[in-house]
User: Which sequence fits this backbone?
């Protein structure tokens, strides 16, 4: 692995001109993206990080475009992040609230998608509780589709914003040891991150009790750990996943307190990682369960609020890149 | 039937009940085969069908279908279908069984499988003896496993007394839960709820133990894993009344077919690994598997154009049952005679019907088959109620040229 990773450096930094840099109509997942395509999106996001840090946070590149956020599953931060991203680019952003929509009246996913399509959206952002739902819709609609999380499959913009966060702090991915700890089985964040980080050249370690690890996960180019302390040894990034308490009910782990005992990120545990190891969490956190407050708030180490900041920039980049063809941008149309 | 003229199918290769293939003709009268062999010739006034040198075989007996779909069955050479109790409402009372038993006649005989438990809930036994006398040929647990071992024990004691076979769906429900895929790299990459393939062996092990305790006959509708097949093999060696079936999907496909969230490959049990696929082929070859059925379950877009986990399991398999089984003959896994044991004679025996083989006295269910005729599966043009086949656009070989039920022509091309 270390031998191979050094030779992977070159293509990360170069990508073709124009639409060839990202020749995909939609962003359904990290699977299927080449390393240089991920790198391209990260590069594109940098300008939006700068813009968002200024006082004039708006650039009307997408003015006149309609972006529909169709969230079939509850979300606060991802929905807000996409909404802000679209608005800062000058698009008309509409959120479809599922709780009051016809989805509740039994309309099928396909019919809902066709309805959104008929309203001539220029991009549709979808979150759905079933794996593959976004894939299904992207085949049917005429505009770019962005996956904001489908079941336990993928959450590509989360992986991209995590990669952007890591790149800003560590500059490169080759040889970087990243630990992802928690409910890997039910986590789309973990799947997308495994794909993107392994593709960018990092060494990915996953850590969870066996019942929370999906079968044959090692086939996704990761090292599997059950012992968190062992996984943390030499780690450069520690990515904690949210423990979905409602999903546990004694089926997977005996109790939150026992989970913290084995897999909670405490200051003592963090000391086993590299001295400058980053702490990350996709949120929302269960403070005192998977992560202690004094770790989550550790200045200089915790990247949790940076992740949220990068999220807006990353989503601006994705919306801007995916609408280039529709907007007739030179080299993309 | 007697109003129809006697039928003589001439000039074909007869697949006889003893497995030999011989040139000759076959004569049917009053719905039964009355003469068969090289020296048979049509009598005055017979309806004569020239088989033009093609194979004359028994009509297929398809054990464990989910819908009565005559056009698809006739296309596939199926003259009798064992109907699963998983209907809406389920076949768990005598009246529904009686209705189902009459529903296909005269050109398709439907043999209803009585629900083992009321509402297929797996708790209270259904009125099995009354359903038997209303026309049920066997008992089935549906697409579910009976989780409570005590209920299963009492079911087998009862069916053993009644002399009926119990057709079970071997998947441990506690392990399977809401899984729609077999645990493995594909399910992990797609993020689909999955269960380990061992859930099948676990269920088979328990049911074999209960069959041994009671001496009752049990048939595992689909055995799809190497470990499950090993258990069946062992039970047969010990002389238990255990039989096993499978559908072509499990020897043609593995879970790789799920790529792209293709819901037409959403089956129950889910498609397995490549190793298990090969184990199914070996088990067909060595006689561990007794029955190949279609599991025919036509499902339209309202059930299939959904996210994978939300879609209904099942595939339309009646039309491809014969050609896919013929693949095994061409690959040298089984002989042509053995293929028709798996497709007709064995399921007929399990259902206790006088069909599935060509011999004097058997009911005149006859298929004239072109075993190597090529055609292409097209989900848009299937005879079935819906085209949910995972084999769309694939070339296959083997087609039914003519089909007769009770000596009456159903299909002739």
Assistant:
């Amino acid at each position: 692995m270390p031998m191979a990773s050094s030779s992977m450096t070159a293509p990360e930094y170069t990508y073709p001109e124009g639409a060839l840099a990202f020749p995909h109509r939609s962003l359904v997942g990290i699977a299927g993206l080449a390393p240089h395509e991920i790198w391209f999106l990260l590069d594109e996001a940098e300008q939006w990080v700068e813009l968002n840090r200024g006082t004039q946070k708006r650039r009307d590149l997408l003015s006149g475009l309609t972006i529909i956020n169709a969230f079939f599953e509850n979300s606060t931060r991802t929905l807000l992040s996409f909404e802000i991203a679209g608005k800062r680019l000058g698009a008309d952003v509409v959120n479809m609230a599922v709780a009051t929509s016809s989805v509740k009246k039994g309309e099928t996913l396909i019919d809902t998608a066709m309805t959104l399509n008929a309203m001539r959206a220029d991009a549709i952002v979808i979150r759905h509780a079933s794996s593959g739902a976004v894939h299904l819709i992207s085949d049917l609609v005429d505009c770019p589709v962005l996956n904001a999380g489908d079941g336990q499959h993928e959450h590509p913009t989360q992986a991209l914003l995590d990669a952007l966060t890591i790149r800003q702090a560590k500059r490169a991915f080759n040889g970087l040891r990243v630990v992802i700890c928690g409910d890997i089985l039910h986590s789309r964040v973990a799947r997308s991150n495994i794909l993107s980080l392994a593709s960018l050249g990092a060494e990915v370690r996953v850590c969870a009790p066996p019942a929370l690890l999906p079968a044959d996960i090692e086939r996704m180019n990761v090292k599997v750990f059950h012992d968190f302390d062992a996984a943390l040894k030499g780690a450069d990034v520690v990515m904690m996943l949210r423990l979905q308490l409602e999903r546990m009910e004694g089926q997977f782990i005996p109790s939150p307190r026992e989970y913290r005992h084995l897999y909670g990120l405490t200051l003592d545990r963090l000391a086993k990682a590299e001295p400058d190891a980053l702490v990350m969490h996709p949120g929302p956190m269960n403070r005192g369960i998977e992560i202690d407050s004094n770790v989550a708030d550790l200045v200089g180490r915790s990247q949790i609020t940076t992740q949220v900041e990068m999220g807006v920039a990353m989503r601006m980049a994705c919306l801007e890149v995916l609408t280039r063809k529709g907007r007739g941008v030179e080299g993309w149309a | 039937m007697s109003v129809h003229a006697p039928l003589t199918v001439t000039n074909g290769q007869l697949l006889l009940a003893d497995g030999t293939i011989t040139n000759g003709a076959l004569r049917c009268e009053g719905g039964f085969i009355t003469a068969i062999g090289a020296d048979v010739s049509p009598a005055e006034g017979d309806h004569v069908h020239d088989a033009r040198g093609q194979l004359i075989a028994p009509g297929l007996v398809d054990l464990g279908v989910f819908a009565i779909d005559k056009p698809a069955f006739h296309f596939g050479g199926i003259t009798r279908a064992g109907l699963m109790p998983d209907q809406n409402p389920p076949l768990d009372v005598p009246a529904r069984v009686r209705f189902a038993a009459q529903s296909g006649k005269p050109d398709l005989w439907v043999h209803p499988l009585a629900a083992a438990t009321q509402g297929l809930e797996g708790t209270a036994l259904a009125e099995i003896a009354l359903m038997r006398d209303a026309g049920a040929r066997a008992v089935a647990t549906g697409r579910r496993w009976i989780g409570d071992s005590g209920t299963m024990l009492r079911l087998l004691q009862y069916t053993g007394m009644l002399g009926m076979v119990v057709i079970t769906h071997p998947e441990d429900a506690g392990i399977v839960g809401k899984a729609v895929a077999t645990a493995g790299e594909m399910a992990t990459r797609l993020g689909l709820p999955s269960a380990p393939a061992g859930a099948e062996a676990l269920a088979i092990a328990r049911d074999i133990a209960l069959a041994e305790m009671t001496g009752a006959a049990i048939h595992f509708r689909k055995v799809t894993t190497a470990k499950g097949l090993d258990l069946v093999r062992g039970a047969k060696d010990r002389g238990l009344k255990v039989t096993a079936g499978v559908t072509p999907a499990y020897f043609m496909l593995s879970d790789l077919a799920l790529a792209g969230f293709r819901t037409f490959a959403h089956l129950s049990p889910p498609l397995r690994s490549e190793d298990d696929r090969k184990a199914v082929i070996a088990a067909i070859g060595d006689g561990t598997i007794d029955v190949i059925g279609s599991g025919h379950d036509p499902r339209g877009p309202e059930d299939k154009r959904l996210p994978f986990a939300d879609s209904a399991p099942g595939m339309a398999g009646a039309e491809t049952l014969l050609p896919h089984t013929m693949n095994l003959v061409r690959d040298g896994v089984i002989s042509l005679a053995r293929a028709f044991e798996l497709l007709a004679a064995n399921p007929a025996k399990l259902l206790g019907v006088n069909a599935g083989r060509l011999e004097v006295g058997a009911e005149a269910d006859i298929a004239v088959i072109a075993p190597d005729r090529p055609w292409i599966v097209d989900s848009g043009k299937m005879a079935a109620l819906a085209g949910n086949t995972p084999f769309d656009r694939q070339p296959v070989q083997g087609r039914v040229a003519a089909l007769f039920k009770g000596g009456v022509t159903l299909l002739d091309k």
Q: What stands out?
A: The beta strands of chain A are 66-71, 92-97, 123-128, 145-150, 177-181, 203-207, 222-225, 237-240, 278-280. The radius of gyration of chain A is 20 Å. Chain A touches chain B at residues 31, 108-110, 128, 130-133, 135-136, 150-154, 188, 191, 214-217, 219-220 (CB under 8 Å).
